[in-house]
Specification:
Layout (H helix, E strand, L loop, with lengths): L1 H8 L1 H32 L4 H16 L2 H13 L7 H25 L3 H9 L4 H34 L9 H9 L3 H29 L2 H9 L1
Helix pairs in contact: 1-9, 2-5, 2-7, 3-5, 4-5, 5-7, 6-7, 7-9, 8-9
Amino acid sequence: MELIQYALDNLDLLITRTVEHIALVGVAVGIATLTGVPIGIAITKNERAARWVLYVASIIVTIPSIALFGIMIPVLSIFGHGIGYVPAVIAVLLYSQLPIIRNTYTAINNVNPALREAARGIGMSPNQRLRLVEIPLAVPVIMAGVRTAVVLNIGVMAIAAYIGAGGLGTFISRGISQSDPRQLIVGAVAVSVLAIIVDYTLLYVQKRLTPKGMERAAETA
């Protein structure tokens, strides 16, 4: 009851921090999608480049988030953004690259060759095949990568509170520094609930973007 009462007493702040958290993750993953999808498509043309890009993206994901923040502080301090919003967004953007690039690369590569041949047979150019055939078929797998990136980085963004980025991680960091379990638990539960809600929301979007023929094929498989 004490936890519920604390959450109710601080409901306005909780909503504000939740909106901050969503905005931070949304901007970072949005930029990651705009960059990662084209990269994933581009590397389907070069197997060697694909190996290197995926290898570098995999290495980035293995770097502990607090260490990545620590690396960026002196680098971005040169430009006056050592702490706060900018390093948090850049860190989450970097962490988002692997699932988005990998899923895009895999999805485009796994498009049925017969469909490519059929598109070529009716006179489509490579760009038309990509835009009208390959990308629509790849959308569900690409969206799955975006979902993975979002859910993963909702948790990572909580750590960004330690560099002044705001968000729900503020409750967790203050709960630890002030030895206040109420703040700690409320913050942790809020992050978890947010991740679940966003994941199911994106799953709904993913299903809406899946071509009807693919949905029927999946149901009958």
